[in-house]
């Protein structure tokens, strides 16, 4: 089973940082745009972006006085791999579905693949966040140890 450094869990545990990651999954943003999108102060956004940058989850690009941030999806790969151990594998497609899939032309397949790549990181992050919340909720309901 893959392991993930505990500090990475701490980084993505914060709701503001998860909101930042969700926005950055859509593309590159300037700090001011993220401040407006999250409706929090600029120092708060900058603090959380610094934490995300130190965890290699976002990268920064300077252009004049402005700083642009973008998601580094490989930083989340460890988390996705670990959470994948809790998600059941998809069912095998039937033979009929396979035949229909083979009849699509190459252009349609390339287009679908490009669309999945473009939206895959954001959707994967949403799926991971939802699944992580389900796991957290389930464990929060359980009581550990003996009551006296």
TrEMBL record:
Which parts of this chain are annotated as the region Disordered?
94-125
Alphabetical UniProt keywords: DNA-binding, Transcription, Transcription regulation
Nucleus in keyword set: no
The record's annotation in CDD domains points to:
HTH_ARSR
Q: Which InterPro entries match?
A: ArsR-like_HTH, HTH_ArsR_DNA-bd_dom, HTH_MetalResp_TranReg, WH-like_DNA-bd_sf, WH_DNA-bd_sf
GO MF assignments: DNA binding; DNA-binding transcription factor activity
HTH arsR-type domain residues: 1-91
| Keyword Magnesium assigned | no
The protein's name in its UniProt record: Transcriptional regulator
Task: Give the originating organism.
Answer: Galactobacter valiniphilus
């Amino acid at each position: 089973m893959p392991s993930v450094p505990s500090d990475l869990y701490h980084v993505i545990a914060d709701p503001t940082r998860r909101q930042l990651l969700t926005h950055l999954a859509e593309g590159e943003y300037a700090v001011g745009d993220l401040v407006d999108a999250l409706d929090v102060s600029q120092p708060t956004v900058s603090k959380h972006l610094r934490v995300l940058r130190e965890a290699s989850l976002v990268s920064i690009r300077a252009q004049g006085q402005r700083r642009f941030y973008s998601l580094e999806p490989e930083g989340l790969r460890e988390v996705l791999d670990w959470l994948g151990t809790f998600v059941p594998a998809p069912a095998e497609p039937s033979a009929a579905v396979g035949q229909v899939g083979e009849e699509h032309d190459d252009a349609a397949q390339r287009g679908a693949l490009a669309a999945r790549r473009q939206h895959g990181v954001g959707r994967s992050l949403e799926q991971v966040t939802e699944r992580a919340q389900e796991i957290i909720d389930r464990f929060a309901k359980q009581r550990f140890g003996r009551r006296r």
